[in-house]
Amino acid sequence: MSIAETIQKCRHEIENLSSTLNNERMGRMGAVDLMTCREGKEETALTNHRMRERKLLRGHFGKVYALNWCMGDENSDKLVSASQDGKLIVWNGLTSNKTKLIPLSSAWVMTVGYSPSGAFVACGGLDNICSGFKLANHSIPDEKTEAAVPDFELQHHDGYLSCCRFADDNTMLTSSGDSLCILWDIRTTRPKVTFEGHESDVMSLTTLGANGTFVSGGCDCTAKVWDTRTGKCVQTHEGHDSDINSIDRFPDGYAFATGSDDNTARMFDTRCWGEINTFGKENLPVSITSVAFSSSGRLLFGGYDDFTCRVWDVVKGELMEPALVGHEKRVSCLGVNKPGTALCTGSWDDSLKIWA
User: Fold this and answer.
1) What is the pLDDT of residues 68-110, one digit of tens each?
2) How high does pLDDT run on average in the chain?
3) H/E segment holding residue 25
4) What is the three-state SS of 290-324?
5) Which residues pair with 101 in a beta bridge?
6) How far apart are CA 146 and CA 325, in angstroms?
7) Cα(214)–Cα(145) distance, rounded to whole angstroms?
8) How far lies 287's CA from each of 107, 304, 309, in Å?
9) pLDDT value of residue 8
10) 114-117 — which CB contacts under 8 Å span 24+ positions?
11) Is the pLDDT of residue 28 over 70?
């Protein structure tokens, strides 16, 4: 057997082993189909989990406001975080090493995004601008340097930038305190589509789905589903009594979860145009800052103002034990990596933690 044939055989064996391990992991995490659950199929209740803190990411000297994992296959172990210290840091989540540090011209950053290709990061906040940086042009400076010059700037919003998400290296979605969402052409730095419909600040949005839709949530207590082809709102979901702070899409693309200042997270399905579950307890009067699904969709993670991250069983609507405890101040942001093997939480205690 030639060297090339041996290499090809090894690659094939690795792919098969990876597939087998992924199927086993998804089974243990209780991968669910919402349609079968709605039709009455019984699902085994999950009462606890075995997640614990694996890595502590130290490097920021101010409140961590936002984080985002790279959703590309080649860089799925990378994430970027933004802090009130006026820095963006790109981390290797496996080793906890810093790979890039980008000084910003404005410390009031509220959101950060990582392109699927791993080539770009972007951020924005009270400067009303979405600033993008090509990572190949930046490293970790040896000493204090001037603010980095953005490789592109997206300027059109009249309010603070609350969320930014890459669709690809040429397309981005942003939401703002001016009640608008915008789909951008990064190459021309011009808006492609502007989405009007929210009656107040838009606080969060999801990435584009396969059908060209995304979901936004805002201070008008509603979540809206938008069609990028027409620029119109196709669904409006109500149920929350206070600001919606965070939104995440269910893995199948048809449902999504919201986290709110009314102390609840809620799950909505676009196929039935309604709420299908509520995650909250009377003895848990704490605002939810951020939400994210596990890769199987069975678990919903929520970041809370009481310094904890809690885990919910999506099907049963039950709180799982134990809570993820370790931060010393509010958990401001969280996210699950693309393989579903790690959860990262960011906090006002200046740190990030990797849980698995």
Assistant:
1) 999 999 999 999 999 999 999 999 999 999 999 999 999 999 9
2) 92
3) helix 3-28
4) EEEECCCCCEEEEEECCCEEEEEECCCCEEEEEEE
5) 89
6) 37
7) 38
8) 25, 6, 12
9) 85
10) 114/68, 114/69, 114/70, 114/71, 114/78, 114/79, 114/80, 114/166, 115/70, 115/72, 115/166, 115/168, 115/169, 116/70, 116/71, 116/72, 116/166, 116/168, 117/72, 117/75, 117/168, 117/169
11) no
Rounded distance between C-alpha atoms, residue 263 and residue 245, angstroms: 11
Q: Helix, strand or coil for residue 145?
A: coil
- Residue-wise pLDDT for 313-337, tens only, equals 999 999 999 999 999 999 999 999 9
The DSSP bridge partners found for residue 116 are: none
pLDDT in tens, 217-262: 999 999 999 999 999 999 999 999 999 999 999 999 999 999 999 9
- Give the up-direction half-sphere exposure of residue 247: CA atoms within 13 A in the CB hemisphere: 33
For the segment 171-182, what is each residue's pLDDT rounded down to a tens digit? 999 999 999 999
- DSSP conformation letters of 85-134: TSEEEEEETTT--EEEEEE-S-S-EEEEEE-TTSSEEEEEETT-EEEEEE
- pLDDT tens across 268-282, in order? 999 988 999 999 988
Confirm if 2 and 8 have CB atoms less than 8 A apart. no
For residue 248, give the nearest of 92, 69, 127 by alpha carbon.
Answer: 69
Beta strand extents in 210-342 (DSSP E only): 213-218, 223-227, 232-237, 244-249, 255-260, 265-269, 274-279, 288-293, 299-304, 308-313, 318-325, 331-336
User: What is the reported pTM?
Assistant: 0.87
Task: Report how far residue 289's alpha carbon sits from residue 239's, in angstroms, rounded to the nearest whole number.
Answer: 17
Distance CA 158, CA 196 (A): 13
Q: What's the rounded Cα separation, in Å, for the pair 277 and 257?
A: 9
CA–CA separation, 92 and 79 (whole Å): 7
Phi–psi pair at 217, nearest 5 degrees? -135, 150
Q: Minimal CA–CA distance to 277: which of 85, 1, 34?
A: 34
